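seq as requested:
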Amino acid sequence: MRNLLLSLSLLTFVFFGFSAKAQNDISFSFKGGVGAYSGGGSAGYAVVLSPRLNFLSLSEIATLSVGTHVGLGYSSNATYNSRTGAEGQSSFVFDLPLLLELNLGNSSNPDNENDFGGFVGAGYGFSKLANNDLNYGGNSATTSGPVVNAGLSYRGVGVRFSYLLSTKDAEPGESSRNVLGLALLYTLK
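struct tokens:
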């Protein structure tokens, strides 16, 4: 509890201490693309939408932002056996991280014209993929936990890697519910 209060106090100080400067630094960025997710023995593919609010410019090539990389798509672990027919589970993919990110170089802010860039971030996320274990009802596996991500970009085209560390324990016989993500993104704004 003491650490939480200390962290909130520090964030409040940083926010209000830089608020006058930040008013001129606020900008919006939007990326779109496709992604693939894997976790709990399942895989899924999604359209990725990445809105971000740059709230603090650290230099001409660096910003701090808060944003997300929402993944919406399809997950299936179905297999087909000629004797028994189709077995498995299909599901809607939903990946929603809320992240604080440090953006450098290309696409760090709307005025940046560098060819190369990158970002690193951390936050908390929710993810839903098809559950591969039919013994537990074959329903979708939903998990949440801390998430880290990083990416590189060149002239507006980038790649993003993410890893969600699940706070939920895997069911007996189930592989880890941690979710690994990979996305190819294009800067739209």
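DSSP finds two helices and eleven strands in the chain.
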